[in-house]
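Cross-check.
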Amino acid sequence: MQMVDLINKKKYGDELSHDEIKFIIDGYTKGLIPDYQMSAFLMSVYFNGMTTDESTALALAMRDSGDVLDLSDITGTKVDKHSTGGVGDKVSIVLAPLVAYLGAKLAKMSGRGLGHTGGTIDKLESIPGFQVELPLGKFKDQVNEIGCAIVGQSGDIAPADKLIYALRDVTATVDSIPLIASSIMSKKLASGADAIVLDVKVGSGAFMKTLEDARKLSKLMVEIGKKAGKKVSAILTSMEEPLGYKIGNALEIYESIETLEGHGPEDLTEIVCVITGHLLKDSGVVKDYEAGYKLAYETLKSGAALPKFYEFVKAQNGDVNFLKNKDEILTKTKQHKLYAKADGYLEKVDALKVGLAGMKLGAGRATKEDKINLFVGIDLHIKIGDKIKKGDLICTLYHDEKGLVDAIELIESSYIIGPNKRHLKLVEEMIV
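Predicted model, tokenized:
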């Protein structure tokens, strides 16, 4: 088998076999296939696409390039969720203790933020002492004992995906749906869960800008999961505006606690409950999604899952007193307030610009090497559809002077206040 022949085959739109795709991934991971040939292959895929079988083969080959976690010694069905990334997305932080409290087992590996999107690991690290790296045995013991654990993604999980993604990044082949789907699913399949819910964001602050592309990606990932023997569902959720009100690492921990106390933002509460409903159904805790959603919503609103969050944080050496005194988070930086310049309704807030404003303040990274400030960020006091009067407080920026001028400009240009009351559809579709 020769790489040049496989490039040629894909160049003309022919379907590659599982063995041929495995040959490509194994060869590239071992350094036997050079970057220039892999680049040619990726560009062929970009223009000609892949069948579902090819995408599945690619996901499985990348999965098998490193460690595949065996979670069989965790009792019960192991569940997981994945978000394609957005602004203010702290769903995992609320969902983990909620799912565990309700009797499912969530064993999750998460990533760090890059660009305008935040990372769950960075947010958890804003809790003093929180340990994001656990030995596998301790990770599994914790899930068995308290029902959940969230750790950073191991460097040994799908190493082929890391190599290929770095190449995609410099060859303009990132935005290929088969490559995106295979990349995401290779890591999820390697993480060992039995049931997975994919939260596919769509809109200005998401990687998928259109509903059509988000739908294609979701359906393909669900099919890959099905062919790999997993229970996989996808929900398509709006990222036309940030999720919740707070953006920034410690600020999002603050809002997560509010949500677990029972009085968090309705959009965050809704998405957490939709995902939990599917996970509870797939793990056999409830008979159907509707029962799972209802149970999740009632539990969240009652505040009953908050002690499980404290238990989860304590198990990973986090400072629970920091959480119980969460108002101190708001005192760690300076504040700059922005006010409405007109009467009307909030018709639009550009989630991408808000995310970039947070990055300018230091809450996110432009490159993987950048250091972040865990306490800076943004608090948006209004949502799309809210009525506003001139002079109303619309946003508070938590800052240490860095990037403040740029952040103010981005925030002010992201708002459109007009005469029309707009309703934003939060959950566009569910693919089961």
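The chain has three domains: 3-63, 78-323, 333-418. The domain at 78-323 is CATH 3.40.1030.10 (Pyrimidine Nucleoside Phosphorylase; Chain A, domain 2). Passed to J.P. for a second look.
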